[in-house]
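Page 37, continued from 36.
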């Protein structure tokens, strides 16, 4: 299985490894057992009319759980993301505050990307005191980053897979309740920036 992603996000077409393909197939097959469909609409905290994104588990279902890696205490979580904002806004960082205090997260797919994974990320603009267990960054900090390397508005969802010590009894959709996005080049002239969170996130 090969997936072609937007040129801005990846340097070239990448293929999932055999393990990733099997994990992905298991996630898709699991949807047949789902009776609860969900997904997340994220909006900017300062510019909600301009900053929007769609973030979801592989099947947008509460039946999507982290998939255990046999013989380890690690699991794989895949999620899909789409920048649905206005003009030429760019998602330059994305992260999740996972329940508990854990480390050991690794980006496993895509492998050829302008984003890199960093753990224990603080300094999230507009969210004082929040520390993300992991974040995918295009720069050195969550608030910084490089718009040209970010994810622009698109009609297609991009899939990301992370391995780590995720709580296996928590649906991926519930993990995404605590997701955070950083967007830059916001607005008509691209001079604004913002942080986007789930529309129902408690503040």
């Amino acid at each position: 299985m090969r997936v072609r992603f937007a040129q801005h996000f990846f340097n070239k077409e990448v293929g999932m490894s055999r393990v990733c393909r099997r994990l992905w197939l298991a996630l898709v097959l699991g949807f047949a057992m789902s009776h609860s469909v969900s997904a997340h609409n994220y909006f900017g905290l300062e510019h909600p009319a301009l900053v929007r994104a769609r973030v979801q588990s592989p099947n947008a279902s509460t039946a999507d759980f982290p998939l255990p890696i046999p013989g380890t205490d690690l699991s794989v979580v895949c999620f899909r993301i789409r920048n649905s904002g206005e003009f030429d806004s760019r998602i330059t960082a994305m992260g999740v505050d996972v329940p508990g205090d854990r480390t050991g997260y690794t980006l496993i797919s895509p492998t050829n990307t302008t984003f890199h994974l960093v753990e224990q990320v603080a300094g999230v603009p507009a969210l004082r005191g929040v520390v993300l267990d992991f974040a995918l960054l295009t720069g050195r900090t969550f608030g910084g980053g490089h718009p040209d390397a970010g994810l622009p508005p698109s009609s297609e969802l991009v899939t990301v897979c992370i391995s780590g010590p995720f709580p296996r009894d928590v649906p991926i959709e519930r993990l995404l309740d605590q997701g955070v996005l950083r967007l830059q080049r916001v607005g008509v002239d691209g001079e604004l920036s913002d942080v986007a969170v789930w529309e129902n996130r408690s503040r």
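The chain is about 10% helix and 35% strand. Flag for discussion at group meeting. Residues 90 and 152 are 5 Å apart (CA to CA).
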